[in-house]
Queue: 2 jobs
Job 1
Amino acid sequence: MKSAVLQLPGLNRDRDMIAALTKISGTAPVTIWQTETTLPDVDLIVIPGGFSYGDYLRCGAIAARMPVMQAVKAAAERGTKVLGVCNGFQILLEAGLLPGALMRNSSLKFVCKEIKLEVANADTDFTRAYAKGQIIRCPVAHHDGNYFADAETLKAIEGNGQVVFRYAEGTNPNGSINDIAGVMNEKGNVLGMMPHPENLIEAAHGGNDGRGIFASALDVIAA
Ligand SMILES: NC(=O)CC[C@H](N)C(=O)O
């Protein structure tokens, strides 16, 4: 499976993401720059974390309006898998590719720590390496991770199994409604998540609980 990583000014997790994808798939992802309007032919596009355009206006708001996002939207409509992590999740929400919004953490503080995630839906292209209900470790690092959706949207995403990850065991670091840490679109090919699985993929990271997300999306065996 071929993958690509979006690179935008201010993103800072792109190298970690490229390293994770390369290690897990054995092939380096292609990189995509903000001005590109024609994307390479890949199976998975990843929008990594960071502070695109300095988080001005709202996290992800400027990035979502760059030409490249029209191309990402078109690819998602054609069925290409799209994964957004942290700022990538914020960008996907601002671009309208996912439901809901991410607000300031309820503590009003930047949180950088390890939390626990429950795999709420293991029947997805991004989580089939896990079992439903499995608890995995994962780091978070953000100030705007407080997921919110109105009652109608919440009912729909809960009912459709679009909530893919929840913060487990009282580890919700940001006040997200229903402990939501990751959501996908109705079609199931676009996933956004606040935690950083690319930073927990090998022994040198202190564990590999995040590996299954990439192994699932890239269709390789999780080792
Ligand atoms: N690590 C990240 O991607 C941070 C996302 C965003 N800039 C925030 O702080 O909420």
Job 2
Amino acid sequence: MTQEEKSTSPQDIQTVVICGPSGVGKGTIINRLKEELAGKIGFCVSHTTRQPRSGEVDGREYWFTNQEEMRNRVERGEFLEVNEVHGELYGTSRAALLDVMSRGLLPVLDVDVKGARDLRSSGIKGLYVFLAPPSLDQLENRLRLRKTETEASIERRVSAASSEIEASKEAGLFDEVVVNDVLDNAFEVVKSKITPFLQDARPKKVRFPGCNLLTLLRDGGDGSRC
Ligand SMILES: Nc1ncnc2c1ncn2[C@@H]1O[C@H](COP(=O)(O)OP(=O)(O)OP(=O)(O)O)[C@@H](O)[C@H]1O
């Protein structure tokens, strides 16, 4: 059996998990990582029921879906983590992680605090980074300048941020808390923390209970049989 043929259990998976309140800059930093570490990291595109923002592309930022379809897939156990935020569902599918790993790339996930907890409890290892805003005022300002949210949505996101920041202090949840004040500085810190994890990336066949990469590929790669 070659190295590639050996199956890996979820507990052997190394990932980079990026977490933080809405508007803190997760997407911005991940996009830069995708550029600067191209061919080394792979973004695990998660699913959401929220509407695409201007410029977002299906399959790049998110897989955009609807409540019924997403709930059905959650029922079928397709997701590693799933959460309802501000009335919309978000989740990372097993298939998204498998896809990145099969290409020999270090998986990068963008999740909320509950997602980070769920990944930790399913034994998925790696670097868990919490991005914190310099202040709630600046967070609000970023959301306002982004021009993607209604006033009510901005208020909801900023008020949720306090409890997310509090949760980031939970023992054993995050390995690093990085304040995204000056973007270039925060980006360099995150990149330097990721670098030691890049060595181990090589194509892997991952076996989740009742699901493996070959099954996924044979069935069209959508994870519907897992
Ligand atoms: N360090 C920074 N200084 C100023 N503005 C920033 C900084 N980092 C990101 N931004 C801006 O803040 C806004 C929010 O960033 P981004 O969309 O990346 O946040 P997010 O955490 O991915 O949010 P969400 O979870 O809602 O998708 C964007 O307009 C982005 O350009």
